[in-house]
Design a protein that fits this description.
It is a single chain. This protein is α+β, with helices and mostly antiparallel strands and about 475 residues long. The chain has helices at about 120-125, 140-155, 165-170, 180-185, 205-215, 230, 245-260, 275-285, 295-310, 355-370, 445-460, and strands at about 5-10, 20-25, 35, 40-45, 50-55, 60-65, 70-75, 75-80, 115-120, 225, 240, 265-270, 315, 320-325, 330-335, 335, 340, 345, 385, 405-410, 415-420, 425-435. The protein has three domains: about 5-170, RNA polymerase II/Efflux pump adaptor protein, barrel-sandwich hybrid domain (OB fold (Dihydrolipoamide Acetyltransferase, E2P)); about 175-245, Dihydrolipoamide Transferase (Irregular); about 245-465, Chloramphenicol acetyltransferase-like domain (Chloramphenicol Acetyltransferase, 2-Layer Sandwich), CATH 3.30.559. The protein has eleven helices and 22 strands. Strands 12, 15, 18, 19, 20, 21 and 22 form a seven-stranded mixed beta sheet that branches.
Length: about 475
């Protein structure tokens, strides 16, 4: 390349709160492909979620810094792009060479084709794509979001040569939106290019992959490792290693830290759920188009209870020996997904109406199952509810979602003998549990909170005094 190099290294940006690395799930481009500004070039999985990473400048892919399965540190090179004009590409430098150059003068555009060096936060400000930790104006985001969706629907990107693209780039020829859908297909050996997408514009959805599996396609076999590599030969019939990655690894680390650092205690109470079920039936009959679920109602009672017992909506700062008490409630709830248990967070849940709360819970659960949660959707919680009754169990001593101070558990509603006015009757009964950090309050406050929630379940009219 004459007149100075134009191969620019794009560094993995900050993808969220406290994230230090990301695992490459798949490359969306190959060496030699031509990319446009804000075109997604890789799908990566952080400790919070799977996301697509857009490149802030245009050019030809010179090098990919890592293979699927590799971990890349934030601030380390992710991809190198040759931003030189096409006519000078014949004399380009060796792929992967990063040539630094001076930053443009103030007012110069942030993505000029003749700039060298590596992309930083300043480079991204001219890009319309939103990277967590950076962000742009709403107008730019809207335009770039529409452009990005249009590019996805159009099919393949242009390439710099007539040679076939590498296999990772082939995936772009079939419109697939959700990272979860791509992962599900890869894990079960389903070729998404052979599927007819049932979504808009031919998008391949999760149900399309599941239908292909149901049609009799054999899933890819699990990787089995010799017993010797597991425990020195103590297992005669072999075994399997399953790496803890992404959300599963984060959950394992957080749960371990919770048990290690939080002196938790658990209280529980059984409640007659007749009033709760009657309230749900009344609300849903009044507005069938906006149904309210059991989880939303119990969550509403918890939000009201936190007004009376605010210590449970807090966390301990051990370094400063302080209790940090919040004036807002960011409500987390446990959601089971194909990737494991995640805890989506509804920010500002205390300001939502009961119907809004129910709609937000349903929407977040659907996004969680579809792998569409952003890192922000999984962080910042101050209090958590967990409806483990959906698994058919009566009760559980839940683990507090570190660094929060409490979690409420809801068991299944089952008919049991219950004393009503000195007579035994059959009633729908639910067990409620509260695991709490004993550093933030004692049993009196924890018991008072749980008793208030149980009273609301039995006699929902009690909640009117706190509305």
């Amino acid at each position: 390349m004459s007149g100075g190099g134009a191969v620019r290294g794009f560094l993995l940006p900050d993808l969220g709160e406290g994230l230090t690395e990301a695992e490459i799930l798949t490359w969306l481009v190959a060496v030699g492909d031509t990319v446009a500004v804000d075109q997604p070039v890789a799908e990566v999985e952080t400790a919070k979620a799977a996301v697509e990473v857009p490149c802030p400048f245009a050019g030809t892919v010179a090098a990919l810094h890592g293979a699927p399965g590799d971990s890349v540190a934030v601030g380390a090179p992710l991809i190198s792009i040759d931003t030189s004009p096409a006519e000078s590409a014949a004399g380009s430098a060796e792929p992967g060479t990063v040539v630094p150059a001076a930053r443009p003068a103030p007012g110069a555009e942030g993505a000029g084709a003749d700039r060298g060096g590596s992309a930083s936060q300043g480079d991204l400000q001219g890009s319309g794509a939103v990277l967590v930790g950076y962000g742009t104006g709403r107008d730019a985001h809207g335009r770039q979001g529409r452009r990005r969706r249009a590019r996805t629907a159009e099919g393949p990107r242009t390439t710099a040569s007539a040679a076939p693209s590498a296999p990772p780039a082939q995936e772009l020829r079939t419109p697939v939106v959700s990272p979860l859908v791509r992962r599900l297909a890869r894990e079960h050996g389903v070729d998404v290019t052979a599927l007819a997408g049932s979504g808009g514009g031919g998008l391949v959805l999760r149900r399309d992959v599941e239908a292909a599996l149901a049609a009799g396609r054999d899933p890819a076999p699990a990787a089995v490792v010799p017993a010797e590599s597991l425990d020195g030969g103590g297992m005669p019939d072999g075994g399997e290693r399953i790496p803890l990655r992404g959300a599963r690894r984060t959950a394992a680390e957080r749960l371990t830290r919770s048990r290690r650092e939080i002196p938790e205690a658990t209280v529980w109470v059984d409640a007659d759920a007749s009033g709760l079920l009657d309230l749900r039936a009344t609300l849903n009959a009044a507005d069938p188009g906006r149904p309210v679920g059991i989880l939303a109602l119990v969550a509403r009672f918890c939000l009201l209870g936190l007004r009376r017992y605010p210590s449970l909506n807090s966390r301990v700062d051990p370094e400063r020996a302080e209790l940090v008490r919040f004036s807002h409630v960011n409500l987390g709830f446990a959601a089971q997904t194909p990737q494991g248990l995640v805890v989506p967070v509804l920010h500002g849940a205390h300001a939502l109406t009961t119907r809004e709360l129910s709609a937000e819970l349903d929407g977040a659960a659907e996004r969680a199952r579809g792998g569409a949660l952003s890192p922000r959707d999984l962080t910042g919680g101050t209090f958590t509810v967990n409806n483990y009754g959906v698994f058919g169990v009566d009760g559980s001593a839940a683990i507090i979602n570190h660094p929060e101070a409490a979690i409420v558990g809801i068991g299944r509603i089952v008919k049991r003998p219950w004393v009503v006015e000195d007579r035994v009757a059959v009633r729908p009964v639910v067990e409620l549990t509260l695991a709490f950090d004993h550093r933030v309050c004692d049993g009196e406050e924890a018991g008072g909170f749980l008793r208030f929630v149980a009273d609301c379940v039995e006699r929902p009219g009690i909640a009117l005094g706190d509305l």
